[in-house]
Amino acid sequence: MRVIVAAALLLLLANCERAVDLVPWKGQPGSTQPNAVGLVTLPCDASTPLEPTRPYYCRRDRHFVTPPAREALVTAAKAMRARYPGEVLRFMDASGPDGEKPFPPHLSHGDGRQIDLGLYYTDVKGRPLDHFPATDRYGGYWPAEPPRPGEEIACPNGRPARAEKPDPPANRPWRLDEARTKALIQALIADRRVRRILIEPHLERRLGLWGHPKLRFAGCQAARHDDHIHVDFH
Ligand SMILES: [Zn+2]
Question: Which portions of the sequence form the region Disordered (predicted)?
């Protein structure tokens, strides 16, 4: 009996943690005053249309960027909301407070000039999702949009160790919102503070952006970039 109660309690706690994680993060407004190494923090209080995909990124101080990168991201988030009322721009890892590269587990993040951004999604009927897809029951990785039959498979031999993340199952409840994802990328590449964006080739083609000088494939040693995009700033 005692074991059952303990197990139930653990389950409850685990669920509480998850529930807390799913509540929109109303944390700090972020700082526009640079710290000792010249970095500021992204707003985590919903005062702008910019928010973390999970509170973790704000709570664990993984949201440090340079002042121009912060401005560019807030500008892109506002452009998305102006075009799609109520919409937000969701971010993942940026850099830590010390400005040191690398910023584990990333090889390239750390000096405030990089960030990973979430893509936009619809349900299977093409209706925009108002939340970031929960992937727990579908492999647990970030919500990927794998190549369709006939589209280019960038790494037919897979990727090494940690970089390898399998395609999500066909019965996943999300699909890529191509219009919104393209609008975000267009807003970013039009911004001179943005140096380049890493994206998988099949999405670059599908979105009609193939060959843009700011769009690059990260290579098969890096993580897949059809479940997020990586943005480098000047
Ligand atoms: Zn990245």
Answer: 151-174
Q: How far is the CA of 155 from the centre of ligand 1 (A)?
A: 18
Give the helix, strand, coil percentages of the chain, each rounded to 5: 30, 15, 60
Distance 180 CA to ligand 1 centre (A): 20
**48: number of Cβ within 10 Å:** 20
d(CA 8, CA 66): 45
Which candidate, 128, 109, 110, places its Cα nearest to that of 120? 128
User: What local confidence, expressed as pLDDT, does residue 10 receive?
Assistant: 45
Distance from the alpha carbon of residue 177 to the mean position of ligand 1, in angstroms: 21
Distance (angstroms) between ligand 1 centre and the Cα of 13 equals 31
Q: Quick one: pLDDT band at residue 2, thresholds 50, 70, 90?
A: low
Query: Half-sphere exposure of 196 toward its Cβ, with a 13 Å CA cutoff?
Result: 11
Q: Is the pLDDT of residue 85 over 60?
A: yes
- Among 203, 229, 233, CA closest to 91: 229
Per DSSP, what are the bridge partners of residue 194? Answer: 233
Helix (H) or strand (E) holding 24: none
* Res. 7: pLDDT tops 60: no
Query: For position 26, what pLDDT does the model report?
Result: 58
Expressed in angstroms and rounded, the spacing between residue 15 Cα and the centre of ligand 1 is 29
**pLDDT for residue 23:** 45
Percent of the chain residues topping a pLDDT of 70: 88
Would you say 58 and 94 are in contact if contact means Cβ atoms under 8 Å apart?
Answer: no
Distance 174 CA to ligand 1 centre (A): 22
